[in-house]
Amino acid sequence: MQSEDVHEALSPISWLAGRWKTEAGEGHFPNLHDFHYHEELEFICIGQPMFNYTSISRHPEKQTPMHQERGFLKIKPGTNEVAFMVSHNFGLTSLEEGQCSVQNKEIKLTTTNLTRCSFSKPPHVKRFERKFKLLEPELLEVILYMETDSTPLSEHLRAVYKKL
């Protein structure tokens, strides 16, 4: 994706545009066994002042789907304020808000609102903190912290992605 394909409002975070893939995502949480995953992320601009976002993670050996997310990443024009609206396939929607750093090519987000379907299984997610950081022009690191009603905020996922 060329930078001219990205809406002008997204220029502070235009480095996210495109498809990203990891081969070595790592997951852990206090009440889970450590695990690995493969994941593809996509941030696409269709002419609006936001990215359309998709994420699909798969089991590294079986290649079966593990988790999916769909959403939108918006920036308040003329500021470094961002909002990330995400729908998760396990019955949760999250609104995360935060800041982007143009100099550091980094976005930090914290949950401001969560909604779950009435039959979600416990433990229930209470909060996310998420960081996107461009390490090099073709390398993106994503770290996700999660808090549930039975565990404190803890690192849950960490992966480095290559741009496709």
Any overview of this molecule?
With 164 residues, this protein is an all-beta fold. The protein has a single domain, classed as Lipocalin (Beta Barrel). Helix content is 0%, strand content 66%. It contains no helices and ten strands. The protein has strands at residues 18-29, 32-44, 50-58, 65-75, 81-88, 92-101, 106-116, 125-136, 139-148, 151-163. Strands 1-2-3-4-5-6-7-8-9-10 form a ten-stranded antiparallel beta barrel. The radius of gyration is 16 Å and the shape is globular.
Question: What does the secondary structure layout of this molecule look like, with pairings?
Answer:
Elements: E1 18-29, E2 32-44, E3 50-58, E4 65-75, E5 81-88, E6 92-101, E7 106-116, E8 125-136, E9 139-148, E10 151-163
Antiparallel strand pairs: 1-2, 1-10, 2-3, 3-4, 4-5, 5-6, 6-7, 7-8, 8-9, 9-10
